[in-house]
Design a protein that fits this description.
CATH class of the largest domain in chain A: Mainly Alpha
CATH architecture of the largest domain in chain A: Orthogonal Bundle
Number of domains of chain A: 2
CATH topology of the largest domain in chain A: Tetracycline Repressor, domain 2
CATH superfamily of the largest domain in chain A: Tetracycline Repressor, domain 2
Radius of gyration of chain A: 20 Å
Structural class of chain A: mainly alpha
Largest interface: A-B, 45 and 45 residues
Number of helices of chain A: 11
Distance between the termini of chain A: 48 Å
Number of strands of chain A: 0
Oligomer: homodimer
Chain lengths: 213, 213
DNA sequence: TTTTATTTGTACGATAGCGTTCATTTTGCT
DNA sequence: AGCAAAATGAACGCTATCGTACAAATAAAA
């Protein structure tokens, strides 16, 4: 699962049909891995789903580990793309936080994300690097963005905080509460748009109250 | 993994040696399952670790699923035993919350708990009931105890809240922040006793500030 | 059309793990 | 000591999956 393993194909040429097949394989692998976990997912099932022969998979990916690693890599890249905190340019801190809170609720409550986190948790023991990649692209990145945002706000005197990192970390905790836990171990939790609004507002109000100058 | 499956032994007699072996098997199974996950853990490895023959395991437990279920059951019972919120009898709300926060930090940050949650997450898809059992004995129970506590405090006029359940859920979120996430997917996070104190105090102060009458 | 790259299906070897059978041995009770 | 219950070890059948080999078929490129 080294970075050098991204592309196993040294002799194979990138024909358009091949590219499409690779994408199909990754998509199929994603479904199978997320549904069954690493151990229980099978290469044959992935091949069948991708409508590709098993040999094709092995000609494009070194082995099952490598395929899983690339699925995670793709998923993390996607996460990174869709999960950002906007800056303060024209908006009030409250509005930015509200937007971020709603974004978190939308993004983290998707079934796909929940399944992804379930599978990932199990594989961290097998390959810790995979967990680190997830953290770097998701939680740590969010935390860093939030910290930067709050640092600016602090310098403007809009808020007070004796530990800006702790304040940043507190925010997602306030927004999600124990919801992520209930989602990971229990039934699907469905929140209406209104409920999300309410939850986001409650978290932002609380955070701002705590950090009032 | 039905409740009726707790004891598979209808003909076997509970000799003291047998009891000890059952305990050994459960302990060994716990280690193997937590270290490798359900699929990757093997009965033979469990037997070897428990210093017991494979046949003995099968004479006491129906199959691998049943063994895993009982390990989870035992773990949940242990959790329930060790994880309580004291009541308000003689103490101030602040002290009770502080105590609860420290208890949470100690309990949830143990390596064992982290590994347990990792494994469990993966198995929820395979057997949702196992996740429910965990929630009932852990998070839901805590939430209920907290809610009861806060309801009392509310009636005494010590705090204000328009949604006592939301207020209760907010508390663990405030205490743990994203730490549980970083622990689940990343390196071991070690907090000194002083750091735990600091974190607990910060969370309690924040929660009380938010709910000041 | 010819050539080359790629894919496919099928078969195969190797490994591993589950769960069972059974003859033998050990244990604990009386 | 004698007896019944329980544990052991070794072997076995079975199934599943990984990863590979190879000849045939197909697709792209020249």
């Amino acid at each position: 699962m080294l970075d050098a393993d991204i592309n196993q194909t040294h002799k194979l040429i990138d024909r358009p049909a091949s590219q499409r097949k690779i994408a199909d394989i990754l998509a199929a692998a994603r479904v199978e891995f997320f549904a069954n976990g690493f151990s229980a997912a099978t290469i044959e099932a992935i091949a069948a789903r991708a409508q590709v022969s098993k040999v094709t998979i092995y000609s494009r990916f070194k082995d099952k580990d490598n395929l899983f690693g690339q699925v995670v890599r793709a998923e993390c890249a996607d996460m990174r793309k869709n999960f950002t905190v906007e800056n303060l340019e024209n908006k009030s801190l409250r509005d930015v936080l509200l937007h971020a809170a709603l974004g978190m609720l939308d993004f983290l409550m998707r079934d796909e994300m929940i399944r992804f986190e379930r599978i990932l948790a199990a594989e961290v023991t097998r390959d810790p690097k995979i967990g680190e990649r997830f953290l770097d692209n998701g939680p740590r990145r969010l935390l860093q963005d939030l910290t930067n945002l709050l640092q600016l706000s602090l310098e403007k005197g809009e808020i007070k905080s004796d530990d800006i990192v702790a304040s940043a970390e507190m925010f997602p905790g306030l927004v999600m509460g124990r919801m992520d836990l209930f989602m990971r171990y229990g039934h699907k939790v469905k929140l209406s748009a209104a409920d999300k609004q309410k939850r986001a507002k409650r978290a932002v109000d609380a955070w701002i109250l705590i950090h009032q100058p």
